[in-house]
Amino acid sequence: MSSVGLTTTFKNSVCAHKKDNMKLNEHLADCDSDLRELILRISEVTKKIAKGFASRQSYSDTRNIYGEQQMALDKWADEVIIDDLKGSGIVKYLASEEQPEVLEFEGATGDLGVTLDPLDGSSLIGVNLAVGTIVGIYRGNVLSPGNQMVGAMYVLYGPLTILTYTVKKGVHEFVLNDDGEFVTHEENIRIPDGKIYAPGALRKNYLPFHMKFIEALESEGYKLRFSGSFVADVHQIMHKGGVFTYPGFVSKESGKLRLLFEANPMGFIVTQAGGATSDGRRDILSVQPEAVSHRIPVYIGGKKEIDLIQKLSAEE
Ligand code: AFP
User: Fold this and answer.
1) Residue from 309, 307, 227, 298 nearest 261 by CA
2) Are residues 158 and 281 in the same domain?
């Protein structure tokens, strides 16, 4: 198959400016005080989570609202983050992938709304692949389109523990150092042009326009990199360019991934880094969630890849 709109001259990636060893709390100095506190609180709890993997690898006897058996780790990570935010006073609403409904914290005086995937990719911990915590931040109601977010962040637990955040003033990355501090790793990240694709779902179940998309990427020499941990796979795409997709597929056109907990926060971060996101037809960030459990086909990556999938779906 010949090129269907992917042939562009590769620009040099915008080099992220790096300021060594600035601590996260200093970096957030100019941020709204409640946003700053929220990001710092989550950073502290995730330090605890990063140390808790080895002893919590069994499955629990409960299932989440998607019918998936919860791992002890998922439940524990969920509890420690919720316990911390519940008492913070700054968070009013919290929706978690591990909870059936949006929680409302009665005593809160603040108005922040938080979406939480406490441990994305947790089934991969047993094989020691990277997993992560994903957070979306709103003012008020979390059942709002993703473009209403005021910030988002994720913490990736891999060989390094990396925290990435945006409050709509660039996308910035921090590494947990040997002294237990998150310090700057990369500031003002911009997604580069690149030729990596991370395709979820079974190829035999692809919808026709999605198959054309994948064939176009392959004919352009895109290299497949898919770990099965969404947060890690999107992190790679943001740094190396290309596209992550978990599409809708035959018998499940809404796909597998969750709008509130996975697609929106990661799509928001990549968009703030100069990329884009789509469900194949429209910007994911414009979608009004119908429920906490809303699932959506996901494409996240460079603008040209997102333009291409939307062009191919429109042609059908
Ligand atoms: P877990 O959190 O249950 O490991 O699911 C991970 C995930 O939601 C997402 O991180 C992956 O992209 C996707 O599932 C992979 O799903 P498949 O293994 O079914 O392709």
Assistant:
1) 298
2) no
Considering the domain architecture, whether residues 115 and 180 belong to the same structural domain is answered as yes
Q: Which residues contact 13 (CB under 8 A, 6 or more apart)?
A: 190, 191, 192, 193, 194, 241
Q: Is 97 in the pocket of ligand 1 (CB under 6 A)?
A: no
Provide the whole-model pTM: 0.92
Q: Which residue's CA lies nearest to atom 6 of ligand 1?
A: 121
- Report whether residue 249 contacts ligand 1, using a CB cutoff of 6 Å: no
Q: Is the CB of 121 under 6 A from ligand 1?
A: yes
Structure tokens at 235: 């992190």
Q: Which helix (H) or strand (E) holds 114?
A: strand 112-120
Residue 29 structural domain: 24-186
pLDDT, residue 53, reads 83
Res. 300: pLDDT tops 90: yes
Residue 232, SS3 per DSSP: helix
Place of tokens 């596209």: 243
